[in-house]
Each structure stands twice: as C-alpha cells, then as structure tokens.
Amino acid sequence: MWDMNIKEVRESLEVILEYVKQSRKREKFLIRCKLSDLKRIRKIFWKILKQLEEKTRTLNIKPILNRYNEKIHKLRKKKNKYYVTPNSKNKIFKRLEIFSEEEILEAIDNFSRDSWWVSHNAHRGIQWFFHTNDRIELFLNLPKRDQQQEEEITDPAILKLKKLTESTVKKVCLIKKESKTSNKNGT
Asked: Which helix (DSSP H) or strand (DSSP E) does residue 167 occupy?
C-alpha cells in the first residue's frame, strides 16, 4: 500500500507547483489562480507530504516496536496499535539514521537475553532504550552471559579458586556444627 517513495512524491509535488506557477504567469491556462491560492495549494501539498512521511516512518518502526513489546517490555496499546509517544518515535528514527533495522533488532535480542539488564532496566521504557546511539551500540556488542559463565568455568585460576572456596565453606560449616553440638552437650 505504501510502496511509493517519499522522494518521488516530493518531486511530483514540486512539479505540480511549478506547473501552476508557470501557467499563472502565461495566462494561457485552464486553471486560474491567485497568488494566495497558490500559497494555499503549497501548504496543502506539504501537509500531505508530511503525513505521508509520518505514515511511512511509522510503518518502518513497526517491526522494532513488535520485537521490543515481545522481548523486553509490554507496550501500551490504543485501538490495536502501539501507543508510543512522539519523543520515543523520534528517538527510534534517530537511531535508524545510524543503525539498520536488523542491528536494532539484534540489540533488542541481546538486551532481552541478559537477565541483569532486563531485571534492572526493562521497566525504564522505550525512550530509555533508544536514548543514545551509544546505548544501542552497547547492546549490540553485549556479550552473552551464558558464554561468559562457560569461559569462567574453564579458566584454571577460577576453578582453583572455586575449589578453595568450597573447601573453606565446608570447613566453616563443620566447625559451626561442632560448636552447636558442644553447646547443647554443655561443654
């Protein structure tokens, strides 16, 4: 439905305006209009163009809103459409100037896979998530927690430290048990 290119629409509107201007100058035209009519026509054309741009921009962010709603935080709906404030939409549009849609979707996925980020920041909302380019870059490069834990387990220094910690905890537990039993016996 919205397959048209905004650039083509803008160019065609400019051609129409130019035609009206030229025909007004020649006075051999079928359309007679005053300068005030021409200005009114221009305003209407630009209003139509602005609405078309806004509609296509909204359609472009729909997959992003769907993924955000599904993975991070439920968005409020109004008449079966996501209700997103204009400021939030503008933030998404600004991020789309730098990042591709696929990169933003990947950032949302990376964020949703990390339980710490989700538990501490998911409630902050869509405007927080898209606040800066740096934040999207951070989530794009966010390492997976599962991989970090696997790497930690295979690291020999960490394994040695874990064994020492476990043996220390066992000794402390044994000492506490012995002191409790000795207190009960009266010694």
From this structure: helix 156-185
Q: Could you tell me the residue ranges of all domains in the chain?
A: 6-142
Which pLDDT score is estimated for 1? Answer: 37
What span, in angstroms and rounded, lies between the C-alpha atoms of 93 and 104?
A: 11
- Cα gap 110→136, rounded to integer Å: 10
Please compute Rg for the chain using Cα positions.
Answer: 31
* 3-state helix, strand and coil shares in percent for the chain, rounded to the nearest 5: 80, 0, 20
Helix (H) or strand (E) holding 119: helix 115-121
Kindly tell me the burial class for residue 180, based on how many C-beta atoms sit within 10 Å of its own C-beta (0-12, 13-18, 19 or more).
exposed
Entry pTM: 0.51
Evaluate if residue 100 carries a pLDDT over 60. Answer: yes
Which residue, chain included where needed, has tokens 């509609």? 55
pLDDT at 187 over 60: no
